[in-house]
Design a protein that fits this description.
Blueprint: H1 12-23, H2 29-46, E1 51-53, H3 66-70, E2 75-82, E3 85-90, E4 98-99, E5 105-106, E6 113-114, E7 121-124, E8 128-130, E9 135-136, H4 142-148, E10 155-160, E11 165-166, E12 180-183, E13 188-189
Parallel strand pairs: 1-2, 1-7, 7-10, 8-11, 10-12
Antiparallel strand pairs: 2-3, 3-6, 4-5, 8-9, 12-13
Length: 196
């Protein structure tokens, strides 16, 4: 990260402001997104994971949707915002997505619903991630609520450009830590609380 980041005593709002500024300076989205997709493909080849939750990225987030069509032998799900909750639907091709909440492409409600309890790996976007697996989201809490309902052995992976990584981010008791963070730096960070 460039310049001076907020200190460990800073709150989430300071970090969100800082991270949004950092995201605006990234000029290699495509390159880092490709590195992240390669790392996810490697993870999927090494672990017995079948049902994967990915997401439809905003312009300043790592782009992952190519994986849905490139790796069709997995069961892919994407979230749809339904009030305060995320509802996951099976998606066979990115063309099935429609404009949804917050300007994000979502699966339509008539696609098959997949219970979060059936998902083996949840790929989570966020504004920032630290080396202990703390995820700083945008403040709506959708992913924290979804992760609270996942199986204990479900892997959660934060997905980030390397500019989104920090040594320590603020967290609260309701925040759900990631089992791992996959970044555009070409490395996978395994926090101390990494899962199975």
């Amino acid at each position: 990260m460039q310049g001076t980041s907020p200190g460990p005593e800073s709150g989430k709002s300071d970090w969100r402001r800082w991270l949004r500024q950092e995201l605006a300076t990234i000029d290699d989205h495509g390159t880092q997104s490709a590195v992240i997709r390669d790392q996810i493909a490697t993870l999927l080849s090494e672990r017995k994971l079948r049902c994967i939750a990915t997401y439809s990225a905003l312009a300043n987030e790592p782009q992952l949707l190519e994986l849905v069509s490139e790796l069709p032998h997995f069961r892919w799900t994407l979230p749809r915002v339904d009030g305060e909750q995320l509802v996951f639907h099976q998606v066979d091709h990115p063309d099935q997505l429609k404009p949804g909440a917050f300007g994000i492409a979502e699966p339509p409600s008539d696609l098959e619903v997949v219970a979060v309890h059936d998902i083996d790996l949840i790929l989570c976007p966020g504004l920032g991630f630290d080396r202990h697996g703390v995820r700083l989201g945008k403040g709506k809490g959708h992913y924290d609520r979804a992760l609270a309902n996942a199986r204990p052995d479900t892997l959660s992976a934060g997905i980030a450009f390397y500019q989104q990584l920090a040594d320590e981010l603020p967290s609260e008791p309701h925040d759900r830590p990631m089992n791992l963070v996959i970044s555009g730096a070409g490395t996978t960070i395994w926090p101390l609380q990494s899962g199975s």
